[in-house]
Each structure stands twice: as C-alpha cells, then as structure tokens.
Amino acid sequence: MPNFIDLSGKTFGRLTVLERTTSDKYNASRWICKCECGNITIIVRQSLQQEKTKSCGCLRKESSKKHGLSKTRLYKIYHAMIQRCHNPRFRHYKDYGGRGITVCEEWKNSFESFYNWSMRNGHEDTLTIDRIDNNKGYYPENCRWTTMKVQANNKRRIMIECPDGIDRNFTQISELYGLSPNIISYRHRFCQKRNITGEAMSRWIFRTYDDIKSIN
Ligand SMILES: [Zn+2]
Q: Which residues surround ligand 1, an ion (CB under 5 A)?
C-alpha cells in the first residue's frame, strides 16, 4: 500500500478537493478540485499543500483585473514606493525604510486605495509623489502630487545657519564647505529627530568643518 495522504474534502483557498485521479508522469498524486467559482480543475498535491494553487486560476485573473493598471505609470510609482520602504534588498531602501520611512497600511495593502487617493488629489502622469514632511512616511496627509521642480525647491527651502552666521541651503553648504549633500541631509535629519536646533544643530552639521579647514 503506497503511503498517500488523502486530501479529499479538504479545502485550499477557493479549492475543495473532490477525489484523487491519475498521477502525473513524475508519479505525483493529482486531485480533482472544485473551485468556488464552479470550475473543476486538476491540481498536483504539492501545489495544493504548499499553497501554490489556491483557485482554478480565477483568483489571479480577478486580482490583476481588479485594477487592471499594473502596467501603468501610477502602479510603477506605487510599487517602487513600497519597495524602497519595505524591501531591504531594494537599492534605495537605506534612504527610506532604512530610516523609518514607511507606507501606511491602507496603501500598502491596497493599490486601489492609493489609486483612489491619487485621483482625488490631482494625480497626473507628469507629476511625482512628494512627502510634505520628508521625515515622515507615505500616508494621505503627508503626500501630494507635485512637479519635480516643487520637490527640488522643497529640499532647497531648508536653510541652515552656517558658522559664519549666514543661512544657506544644502547645495550652498555643500559647495562652500565641501560636505556632501547626503552628509548634510543625514545630520540635519539626525538633529530633527532629537530636537536639536539653532546653534547646537549648526555644531552638529558642521562638526567636521574645523577639521577640513585645518587640512586645507
Ligand atoms: Zn475559480
């Protein structure tokens, strides 16, 4: 008696196993299943048990049909947003997920929700998604659709008091003090997170300035 597990009567996703049928050419047992949608289909045991197959195929069709937008620019933006916040293997993760920037549950779980918000909030294919507060995540109240130019201006708007008493933006500081914009931005965020402001912040941001000066 070959040892085999009787799957009949069990359900896997939308599939209910009716009975066993002939094995496939690798001798894997195959089962006749009835899908919730009414279709009858034959599935190999492993696919059922490893949850690789959960329907006759109607499930996948529905979920891609549901928004039918998986090839659109908006979907790509959506996908990339989730990747950079929630996939440590994604190349920009360190600047997003790595520093605590997340996508709200509502959007993360539903493209439709993100899509609807976007449509209500002036999304156009020429615009990019922008976070109003760069230290906060992606959620409706902190996001807007803007032109690249507005985004760049937004970053430029952050002014920091330099050791000579003049306020400058990241680019100007970078040019003048030879600090990379990433370093400035990192230190600036570091200060914001800890409520370090004014002169104390300036000391943090320019803390290698004297070293650089002495080298020159
Ligand atoms: Zn089905």
A: 35, 37, 39, 55-56, 58
